[in-house]
Design a protein that fits this description.
163 residues, alpha+beta, Alpha-Beta Plaits, four-stranded antiparallel beta sheet
Length: 163
């Protein structure tokens, strides 16, 4: 949430800095994580404008993470590349329209993972370079898209912010 790398000196003051940033949290034991890595956390994030997302991820050490579930959908990505996460109605042609919006900006898709529930599909799309807000807005404008988020990579062993 604060964007600190594993070597960031501010980690020692992270609780204080999180409070100053207006973050709130609560820890409680959840017994359903046995199928995941031992350093796994289920995190519910609530936005200022009322949005919410639930993510399951593991700390692998050395600043490495593995995202394993988003909104109940199984996923598997490291957040070391530009990663687009989309939840949409499971309709024919959705992958073509989304990949077409990405291709219009000459962005290469490196990996794509799709999973489905009864009515929804989850797409995790890793790309070779960053995406601008225009692409995200276009994808979000499709009436059948429910959720769009871009996960930006954090350079290994460093902080995304100036020290």
């Amino acid at each position: 949430m604060l964007g600190f790398g594993p070597d960031d000196e501010r980690i020692k003051r992270s609780t204080e800095l999180a409070v100053a940033a207006g973050l709130e949290w609560e820890f409680k034991f959840v017994g359903d994580l046995a199928r995941f890595h031992s350093n796994t956390a289920r995190v519910k994030l609530f936005g200022k404008n009322g949005g919410m997302v639930e993510v399951v991820g593991a700390s692998l050490g050395g600043g490495r993470i593995r995202i394993q579930e988003i909104e109940g959908f199984p996923v598997d990505f490291s957040a070391q590349t530009h990663t687009l996460v989309i939840i949409a109605e499971d309709i024919p042609g959705s992958i073509q329209k989304i990949s077409g919006a990405i291709a219009e900006k000459s962005i290469n898709i490196a990996n794509m993972y799709v999973s489905r529930s009864e009515e929804l599909a989850n797409m995790v799309i890793e790309v070779d370079q960053g995406m601008d807000e225009e692409i995200l807005r276009k994808i979000a404008s499709f009436s059948w898209v429910k959720f769009v988020r871009l996960v930006e990579p954090m350079p290994e062993g460093s902080s995304r912010y100036e020290k």
